[in-house]
Amino acid sequence: MDIELSKQDGILTIAFDREDKKNAITAAMYQQLADALKEAEQDAAVRAILFCGKPKVFTAGNDLEDFLRHPPSDKDAPVFQFLWQLSHAGKPIVAAVAGAAVGIGTTLLLHCDLVYAADNARFSMPFTQLGLCPEAASSLLLPHIAGYQRAAEKLLLGEPFDALEARDMGLVNRVLPGDELLPFARQQASKLAALPAASIRVTKQLMKKNRVSATEQQISAEVEHFARMLVAPEAKEAFTAFLEKRKPDFSQFA
Ligand code: COA
Asked: What pTM was computed for the model?
């Protein structure tokens, strides 16, 4: 299994576990993630959710080979099911990020409640570099938390940034040494799990209330562009170049 699920003391830990491919997420993995979040909502024994990866990589984002072969074609595709579950999660979500967090590896954090990063964390949203556009409502949520100019720099150029910059932007709550990351994130998740579930649920709901429908609309608007761009020649060139370990050549596209 490329997603490892474990339940302990009220915390559901969802760990990316495909290190040989830098935890890149396939459609099958998105389905596992969507199902896990859906089940967690209905399971009273789950009082907090913790996302983590490996010490050197959180996730390299969408599996580009899988995306090339099986581009998500409709709104029921596993990646969109995952985004729906994540953006509608009623239970509190903590993320512990070490190493690379690429694409959805960064944008999923915008839907988490507490985000902790190791000092080796490196975030990026290289959508334009791949001939794509933002997803997961990041084109709405990132400008909201970081301000337009900072969001524009990250989303238009798609260049990586480090944990301290992510903290300064408001994407990350706290930066920790690598060996302290997971114990600290677990401890925070335990605190959430020990508090009255109804208070946590209502507090989260109230904080997110004004953004829920705007987030939904933005995800839909992004999906329309994303799905079209995913099968366009620019993305094909970018994905193929990555898999062939060469630089993409966009000069042929207007
Ligand atoms: N999709 C598919 N395979 C991926 C992948 C992805 N997103 N990211 C990494 N891999 C694979 C590589 O192809 C390579 O496979 P191989 O060993 O069979 O050749 C393996 O994982 C190791 O990756 P590599 O690039 O050699 O590791 P690195 O440590 O030099 O760099 C990253 C790590 C994450 C910075 C780099 O792999 C990367 O930029 N990945 C692409 C990220 C991306 O564009 N994601 C999509 C966002 S929408």
From this structure: 0.97
Tens-digit pLDDT profile for residues 35-93: 999 999 999 999 999 999 999 999 999 999 998 888 887 888 999 999 999 999 999 99
Reduced to 3 states, what is the DSSP secondary structure of residue 23? coil
Please provide the DSSP assignment of 36-84 as one string: HHHHHHH-TT--EEEEE--SSEEE--B-HHHHHHS---STTSHHHHHHH
Stated as kind and residue range, the H or E segment containing 176 is: strand 174-176
CA–CA separation, 77 and 87 (whole Å):
16
Instruction: Name which residue sits closest to atom 2 of ligand 1, judged by CA.
Output: 63
| Backbone conformation region of residue 6, classed left if phi is above 0, alpha if psi is from -120 to 50, else beta | beta
Q: Whose CA is nearest to atom 21 of ligand 1?
A: 21
Determine if ligand 1 sits within 6 Å of the CB of residue 102: yes
3-state secondary structure (DSSP) of residue 140: helix
CB 46 within 8 A of CB 7: yes
**Ligand 1 centroid distance, CA of 245 (Å):** 10
Q: What atom of ligand 1 comes closest to residue 124's alpha carbon?
A: 47
Regarding the beta carbon of 111 and ligand 1, being less than 6 Å apart is answered no
Domains parsed from the chain with CATH numbers: 3-176 (3.90.226.10)
**64 CB near ligand 1 (under 6 Å):** yes
Q: Check residue 73 and give its pLDDT.
A: 79
CA–centroid distance, 97 to ligand 1, in Å, is: 17
- Does position 254 have pLDDT exceeding 90, yes or no? no
pLDDT in the model for residue 75: 81
Instruction: Pick the closest to residue 111 from 76, 136, 77 (CA basis).
Output: 136
- Rounded CA separation 229/237 (Å): 12
